[in-house]
Amino acid sequence: MVELFIMEYLTVLYMVMAFLFIDSRYSQRRTIFVVFSVTILLMAAVAALYRTVDLDTAFWTYAVTIHIPLILLLFTLSQFRGWRLIFQQLSVVLFCTLIHHISGLIYYLSGSRFWVLVLSYAVLSTWVIWFLVRFLRPLFFQILLELRRGWWLICLVMATYYIIAVYLIPGYTGFDSRSTIIKPAIGLLMLGVYSILMFLFSNVHKEAEARYSAQLSALQLSALQSRMEAVKAAENAIRTERHDLRHRLQAAAELVSRGDKDAALDFLDAAQKRLDEQKEIRWCRPPVLDAVFSSYFDQAKNQGILVEAKISLPDTLSVNEGELAIVLANALENAIHANLNLSQDQRQIRCKMTGTPSVMLEISNPCTGNISFDDNGLPISPKEGHGLGVQSISAFCRKNGAVCQFDLIDGWFRLRLVL
Predict the structure, then answer these.
(1) Strand, coil or helix: what is 251?
(2) Is 0.70 surpassed by the pTM of this model?
(3) At the top level of CATH, which class does the domain 283-419 belong to?
(4) Residue 412, SS3?
(5) What pLDDT shows up at residue 385?
(6) Which of 21, 136, 312, 328 is the most exposed place for a label (fewest CB within 10 A)?
(7) Sequential DSSP letters for 109-164
């Protein structure tokens, strides 16, 4: 019965680890239900396997019995595909087998005392799960988003460990002296390699955060400078109009004295229009967002792009203003670039944004040709180095729990974001 306990416990542990390493595309309640249901089915399958075949066959086929459904589960729930999905699977396998092999070593050294095995599983599982939730899991998902190359090589190293530890070394940890010593040693060696990878990933993440902070600071400075220049230009124009006001009043008075009231009214109306043209438009109260709107709308108008904007935001927002400004800048910049491929009469940007009951943004622009979307619904850029703006928007949504949607309908590309 010790063997059955080991297999059943590992089954539960695999499913718990899978839940921790999945960034599910579904709600948490639905994800928990699916994982729980699969766990029950696999535990029943393991019990049936244990009772219908001999012990060697049960141990040999256990890995296949668990790992194939596990990869199917990850494929169904995970937002990632390709090598990143394989990396999630192999990470689950690494930590589960490491707990199993070290517990098996302790069990063997204790003289095969069952309570020692149970205690070892409990202590090691609790500590590893705490470590994953507290430290590794946030970094893990950030790296899955930010690292775009080299996944196949990482997976190759981890798959090599999996094949050696599970299939190439004969015997079973906790029962055979040779495998009980060799498998934990190889597992600890692989853990060291994994730790080095996480250290490198952490540096990649810190560099990405530094670039993001620099981009945010540059955007704020550029937008605010642009806004200040526009305000200064408007103030100079109004100052000039005020200086000429007495001359215009004198001319209007002369026209009235001659009895030419229509000409006087037309003259004053023209002066009023010139003053109205010099008024600086304030799109919203949050200063950084207002500066971004002004900067990119001015760029669009200078490129002959018609801008239709309806913006209604409160003084304060529930999200970091600077981070939201990065989203707006990336979205508007992409819309401007897309319009440059169109003829002058087709260029247009529509922007709607409101702050109640929650922050909702919609930016749309006409575009030519077809746009491909990946499995996560993100548009794919065919040009090397492009598409970083979309990745930045996606990262913002993940960080702040926002929902974003990209679509292409009737020749219009549209971004919708809800916080």
Answers:
(1) helix
(2) no
(3) alpha beta
(4) strand
(5) 42
(6) 312
(7) HTTS-HHHHHHHHHHHHHHHHHHIIIIIHHHHHHHHHH--S-HHHHHHHHHHHHHI
